[in-house]
Amino acid sequence: MAVTYLGVRHHSPACARLVADTITAVRPAYVLVEGPADMNGRIGELLLGHELPIAVYTGYRDGRRRHASWAPLCAYSPEWTALTAGREVGAQLRFIDLPAWDPALAGLRNRYADAETRYSAATERLCREFAVDNIDALWDHLFEIAPAEGLAERLDVYFDAVRGETEAGPDDTARERYMAHWVRAAAADAGDRPVVVVTGGFHRPALIRLAQHGDRDWPEVPQPPGDAVVGSYLVPYSFRRLDAFDGYQSGMPSPAYYQQLWESGPVEAAARLTGAVATRLRGRRQPVSTADLIAARVTGQALAALRGHPVPSRVDVLDGLAAALVGEALEVPLPWATRGHLRPGSHPVVVEMVASLSGDLVGVLHPDTPLPPLVHAARRQLADLGLDGSGEIGIDLGDDTDRQRSRLLHRLRVLAVPGVERAAGPGPGQVPLLRERWLLEPSDDRLPALIEAGSYGGDPLDAAAAVLAERIAAAGGDMPVMAALLFDAVLCGAGELAGPLLDELDAAVASAADLGGLGQALGVVLAMWRHDGVFDTAGSVTLGTVVAAATRRALWLIEGVRGGAAPADRARIHAVTGVRDALRHAGGQLGLDLPAALGVADRVAADRDAPADLRGAVFGLGWSLRGSATDAGRAMRGAFTPAGAGDWLAGLFALAREEVLHAEGMVELLDELVGGLGEAQFLIALPALRQAFAWFPPRERHQIAVRVLRARTGGTGPDLLRLDAAPGLVAAGMALDERVDAALRREGLITT
Amino acid sequence: MSEQIQRPPAEVRYAAELARLRETDDGERPPGWALSLRAARAFVIGDDKLGVSRKFVGDPSLIDRALVTLATSRGLMLVGEPGTAKSLLSELLAAAVSGTSTLTIQGGAATTEDQIKYSWNYALLVAEGPSTRSLVPAPLLHGMAEGRVVRFEEITRCPLEVQDSLLSPLSDRVLALPELTGPESMVFAREGFNIIATANTRDRGVNEMSAALKRRFNFETVFPIADFDTELQLVEAEAAKLLSASGVGVPPRRDVMEVLVTAFRELRDGHNTRGDATDRLSGVMSTAEAVSVAHAVGLRGWFLRREPGTAADLVSCLAGTAAKDSPEDLAKLRRYLEQQPRGRRGGQWQALYEARHELPG
């Protein structure tokens, strides 16, 4: 028996070529490929003749976790060429890795991510040794650009060095043990015919070791737990998504470049890359002169020579273009030097360059491919709920069946399925509506849309949840958008996010920059978290996370607000109210930091640079959270300037209206302070004061009036508020006032 | 001689390394260069096999691009925040390429064309008239005539018309001396001549460069050190050197250095290690500043209490370096100290939080 182990990097044209050549030369009995073993019965589906890129999508759901992952395949994937070349030579094709739902792969959304980046010490050492920025540049340097001779040996040396003494984690170890079991069984079955094993290079050294000893019978394909819902199927994929994984989930970047490299070699790929960048930039009206292109080309070739490349590599070309085309300081480092996503603030020229590397190719499944389960599930559920017709549909959210219908329709709306449109219904932060109106109309575009959406999940619920999770991660700190997305999730009945998505959500909230928007979202989410019977969101973990993160963030932002005399900002005041409510109603349950909040309140209340309304509001925050305030009188006197008093009071009243009303002597003090203002000062303070007192409902305003009158006259009050003149006389007087005002306005003496 | 010099130039400091590199250099040298591109690169980013130290911490590709630019007909413009070792890099590059890094023009508001191109020995000028004897060459004329790299520090601090005097030396590679006659009135640049300019992004808008001049330079942005561990190591090592030179008997504490470098990075980047957006100080939070704060922290600890500096010393030293005289920065720093260290693990973070009131002002 002869087993050839090919350790590859996923999505590497050089490895893909090596795999195809080896299989053609060896003509093995078995080709074993790193891939989900539960797909073995359906390899035929993969080879129907699709337009790549496609992916094997696996969705998993049980009582404890929900998981979705993709195994993307493009023309230059070694796994793909292993399958096609293996079929050509009549070999038995087998996937030998654990199914995507197995707990060992629970942390992976991209099966073909680079395993070695999970253990970065060795790769960092190699990069330093070869004086390159990162593993992508190193890879091109060693394999993609270098001549093909000795490639297999170089790969083995490289991956042996990378694996070195590294102890793989338990997940990788479990996978390696399982794959080795397949190798042993296939080798035993093949007898003296050869076997080719294609896996990630990181696993190769372990596989060779593990395949020596152990069972030689065929391994079982693990079965999911009984309560789990699992589905694996083919979905169309795109270069954009292939390029979009980040961090340790990423594989090779720049699919369009490597596709070109695969098809026509490095020289052509470099030339096309330069051409594509120039075309794109000129299309955007960015100046790209011939002199620039010459400079870029010369620089690229010189860099290639300096770095010892026979032809310019991806990074050589990009470096040359950047040197020639970027004529100013950069805000963030070049993305191909740092790896990972484009960062905000990237130079526009760089953005275009990365876009032309990424490409926009989208895969198409062969018509005979079984439709993704989403299509069947959506059709069945629509029929079950009587929504397969057309026309207008009214829904009562108080009714259980109707609520199910609403959720299904919302899921389809989120998946952008044509012909499903909501005409009216509840929105975030609006008066709670319990009725929805939907317009349904059949559309030919529905099937393609569902097939495309099928790459997100096998059931409308899963797919909508995945789409929303993606959008939430992309929303960044834009809180109104975030609130709308969370509300969509609630409408879809997919309100609960799990695991890393919760962290992403937390991080997104933590980058919010607008206090007003944050406060608004906090209010909406807190209300849903506290009591929402209709959508079952009370006590939701996801919303709780948002409340906690938003409270923390709001406190940070509150301490940073600076500004002098500006009218009271209601959105800002509402944000403080939101913080108060969150601390009061959710503080214990969500573990919010009350002393920290009180600290912020005290500091900002005493900060002369903070705007008056915010100072008043945080003073009220402290008062209301503690239930008492030391020296409220002195604080009020301190804040009472003609220009700022009204704004300060607006903040205070919004937060601690009742406390002010019930505190001994506060109303009287206010009266004294207002009485002490001169005529002109009073006119300056008046508009803001009116706004401040608008926080009191009429009954409380009446109470204030009574107390003021009692303090001033000793009388009982209400009588003094009544006039004893005849209504007609009052009306005549008001009419006279109006005429005088009109005359004054006409002469330009007053303006209102 | 070099023992008495405070700071010898790079070609003197690293003379042995340069000599080793010259000996082993078998690569092709661009005309007029002292080393091949590869050897020059090894000089800057280090080569363990040849015993060449790593002198610049940053992306190797930046050095590649910079060297290639110097071998072409465009000048090299190093831009970046203050304290990102631009000047050091330009010194190293000049030493590697030309063997000398001293042809330096320091840009400033008072820089004149005389200081860039040439001036006259007026006694001789009056006595003999304009001649090569009475001519006093400035760095640019030297560099062109001898085929060496000229460094122009802080170019954007110079008035625009002074900057533009580089236009024809850069594009036509010739400098006219109209006072002289005959072949001496034109100095053609010899192979090996090029210009490395540095500019500070904080100075952007002070003296914006003309588009014509920009076109003649390739821009390379030098970023602060991206990797936390590398920066920590650097700060620790440099601070230890400074402290022992100042007569402090103990090295800086690792945990305090970690807090210091983390705080500097967070205040520089505008987000914390968790990824939350925080404030970016307008003051310079460079690695160099971190070293000087670490130095000050060590001095305080040693000379006030005979122990290594603590996080409490850090608070006192931060105000002077980080906030300088900006009340906004001081407010931002205060907010940072009040809200960020709270709840972080590690004794020194707690100490930093407890000491927050020591922030003056």
TrEMBL record, chain A:
Species of provenance: Catellatospora methionotrophica
Pfam families: DUF5682
Annotated protein name in UniProt: Uncharacterized protein
Organism classification: Bacteria, Bacillati, Actinomycetota, Actinomycetes, Micromonosporales
InterPro entries per UniProt: DUF5682 (IPR043737)
Automatic annotation (TrEMBL), chain B:
PANTHER family: MAGNESIUM-CHELATASE SUBUNIT CHLD, MOXR FAMILY PROTEIN
Name listed for the protein in its UniProt record: AAA+ ATPase domain-containing protein
InterPro entries: AAA+_ATPase, ATPase_dyneun-rel_AAA, CbbQ/NirQ/NorQ/GpvN, P-loop_NTPase
Residue ranges crossing the lipid bilayer per the database entry: none
GO MF annotation list: ATP binding; ATP hydrolysis activity
Annotated ranges, domain AAA+ ATPase: 72-227
Annotated source species: Catellatospora methionotrophica
